[in-house]
Model the fold of this input.
Amino acid sequence: MNHPPKLQVNNLTVNFGNLMAVNNVSLEVYPGEIAGLIGPNGAGKTTTFNAITGLIIPSSGKVFFNGHDITGMLPHKICRLGMSRTFQVIKAFAHMTVEETVRVGAYNRCNEKNVYKKVDQIIKLCDLADLRDKLCSDLGLAILRRVELARALATEPEMLLLDETGAGLNQTELLSFMDLLRKINMEYSITLLVVEHVMQMVMGVCSRIVVLDSGEVIATGNPESISTNPKVIEAYLGKRVPQCY
Amino acid sequence: MKQILSTKYLPFISIFSLIALIPLVISKDQYAMVLVTTVLLYAVLASAWNIIGGMAGQLDLGAGAYIGLGAFTTGTLLTRWNITPWIGMFIGGFVSVSFAILIGLPLFRFKIKELWYALTSSALVEVLRIVFLMWDEVGGPTEKYLPGGGDNALYSLRFSTYIPYFYIILIFLVIVIYLNHRIRNSKLGFSLLALGEDEDAAEVLGVDARGNKLKALMIYSFIVGTVGGLYACLYGFLHPSFFSTEISTEVVILGIVGGMGITYGPFLAAIFLVSFREYLRAALGGELAGLYLAVYAVVLIVVALFQPRGIAPLFRRLFEKVIRSLGGREHESSAKASS
Amino acid sequence: MLDMTVQSIITGLMMGVIYALITLGISIVFGVLNVVNFAHGDFVMFSMYLSYMIGTALVWDAVQTPLITIPVLFIFGFIVYYLIIDRTLRQMYVVQLAVTVGLQIFMRSMALIIWKAQPRALQYSIIQGNIQIGPYTILTSRLVAAIISLIFIAGIAWFLNKSWAGSAMRAASDDLDMASLVGVNYRRTYALTFAIGSALTAVAGGLLMSFQQTDPVGGIRFGFLSWCVLALAGLGSIPGLIISGMIVGVAETVTITFFDPRSRLLVIYGIFILVLWFKPRGLFGRK
Done:
């Protein structure tokens, strides 16, 4: 933890009209770790992600990536700097094949010559070889989550933000997905920040967890301390019991 | 390497060689020549639209504006300064591009809905029509005839038969379809397709929404503007009605009915729909001149609702079936070339 | 000079309220369904022809014709929704837009075939004459049209805020998933919204026929005028809509008074582009 943080969010606030979706959120993610961002429905997790990756412009606050100020920068520029993400509501390229989808991401760092090699490598890594010529509109949820991860990985990020990648997966799918996450974290040293509802996944892969409730950070710490923190339990029990917990 | 190239483009080359032979058969029949030339002209426009509309998913309704700008630039350069349309039409292309950039820059910003671009481009046609109607020096309500013809035919691009126009437009079509094919298999093409599918997702994968859409718009408006110059020479006069909403919508209809993002789709749609339109026009005469547009509109709605990827995939399946039943080995190469 | 300016502003303000009424139709459809009806201006043109036909056949006054055209356009809206719009909701945006462009071309060319190219107007109106205030003249027919428009706008605003169907529409516009959770049938809500948007053009069509003529390409103008008003107003504010309608109306009449009448579309286009460039959410938009 002596390294400077990979991602640093300072006093991030997002308003929609009168509604305060995210209020004064600060958090850090350190190089090489898998951090988790959890909280009940409507706590502002996805909005935080959107503000970090440039999809919405925060009302106030700052976001730093590798020490660069990336607040309000366009998403594709942030991606060039080495940060990409997946979406909670799948945003698949419905009329493109798996291979073509991955190729879109691969062009971030590759030219026409070496793009094929990158695509092959990522498809193998994410175990999508059998499906590479299938159209995304013909694929199921579990596969599409994998495709979303694949295309984000193809951009060769230093850091990935994963938004509810475990939602809607069954037990086997979930376990293999968790293996994949650990693999990309260990072998490719990609820093991960995951938003998750599925507690099994959060507790299984994250080394540090930030808890949001009603747009504010209510706790930060390792999985054990979080699961016993009375404020966290209250936030969840007050609203909704987490699944598989 | 040469071997691969020749097999890959074999269907492409053979089809266009066949088309090039058409005038030899029908050159005596003036009506048929007009028909095939018109089909090719619309095929060029719709194939160009495929880049901005089919791939980038932007409903551009501005084809009429770019045609008019190209036509008036080319025509005015010829009448005022005696500059040959061979140069003038490319200058017309650049004029179209500059107008396109003017509306593309503010409207292709990230997070601005596609709707506003569609509206702006469609209004541009109407606005430019009014401007040229009021601007008497260049436009005005009466036709301005282009000089030339006779001995000067080649210099002023004013031929007395359709045959030279046919070949010029055919060359345009070959270039535009080849361009489509190249873009479709390059970084620009994949970026555009991704933007057309989901702008947010494309942006976080490093695709510059505004830059790529602008590139597509510039290519498209340049082609259409250049064709506009040709259009003026073909008709031999200039008139503000060249800024036509009908042409703009026809181009969109051909692009969508043919199959968005599919290289040869718009050409296919042009063959069927433009022939059909000319047939209706000949059969019904001026009495029901507007009917073809109503039919076009119905075709567009039906295709969009029930076959949103256009008619090209249907033809591809049919084509593959035929090839398979012939047992040819070409199946593989043709499938690849068409994707 | 000053007199002429004030006079044209007065006329523009009254026209602006009618434009706001037309735009309200697009605004609620866009806001609730997130669907863009390119053909909206042609709905107005169609309503005007209907008013013309009813006016001539029954020897009615133009302002009475909405009694018949409102139900007709309401049903027409329902049919268009279920036949076309409903099937495009899950498709790509280009296709969705293109379908309503198809509808627009269809209506325009059918109007051309049925009513031919020459403009039509109704001859008599019971609201004749004008009101003199000092040097200024207010055409009674336009004043009546503006007042009726305001009443309808207020009525729709009340409906959106107070009735159950209205709250269902607002709920569907805010969050479709949540709305279906609390028991809003989105299809019926969407159809109702679309039909109301369509019925509003019947009101506007009748009012416009009391002092204007109609022709098959008139839809282009109304369509564009109302999109310009919407771009100015943004989504979600009804007073903003009226003010924007007035701005566009005044811009139009001032152009007609002091410049070439043909250039009125240019001025509106100018406003449109400037707004999209500098205030892409409109002057009053909340979303």
